[in-house]
Amino acid sequence: MGVSVARIRVLVVDDHRIFAESLAAALAAEPDVDVAAAGSGPAALRCLERGAAEGRRFDVLLVDAELGAGPPGAPAARAVPDDGEGAVDGISLVAGVRRVQPAVRTVVLAEKDDPHRAALALQSGASGWVAKDCSLQRLLAVVRGVLRDETHLPPALLTGVLRELTAARKHRTDSERLVESLTPREREVLRCMVAGLGRKAVAERLFLSPHTVRTHMQNVLGKLGVHSTLAAVALARRAGVGPAEAVPVTVPARVLAGDVVERGGQPA
Question: Is-contact 239 176, C-beta < 8 A?
Fold first, then answer.
């Protein structure tokens, strides 16, 4: 009897059909590799979900760095999660896979070296960044390496990626320091801002007047050293501040007791 070989399940995710099919065929020729292909981020997520449900989880995703980019002038791909249709960009897909199936290793396939995007990929959970025109032997070595928890980068990218990661860490540290300067109430307001809530919605959520919320928002912008809500949200994200959870806010005790609360002369 022959000795059974542990098989590696690989999913190629690329919206260039000829490339995806060619790569999948080359990988399938290996005796220990099972391979499938998906032409979009949502299709890849469905493949992952189906594989897990059938007890045949994928081990490695090979993701096109420019997934969903389309021709010049085409609508930009959006981040996951999504509604299951449309385009999802490659880096966001890496983050989505890490969130839903953290055991799956992802390797980004790129047409050109880009230290900034390579660093983003690693921060999003990728285990490697490989040139699309590398040899099949090199790609297989990376696939097998990431399953041993190795991280693979082209030598020419290493210095640039380390510089990007160091800069990102400094920005995060600086951002965290600024966020720590906020009062607890200001942090609540900031989390509402991250959630995309406007001034009126924040006021209703936190049981504050719109004027008070406006003052808090101005204080948040001032302490963070930014001039717009968008910039404040970007800084908050770098500091690891998540959005306020979309759950019903606790109703004040006097409302539960049956009292009618009025704001501005109108019943609440």
Answer: yes
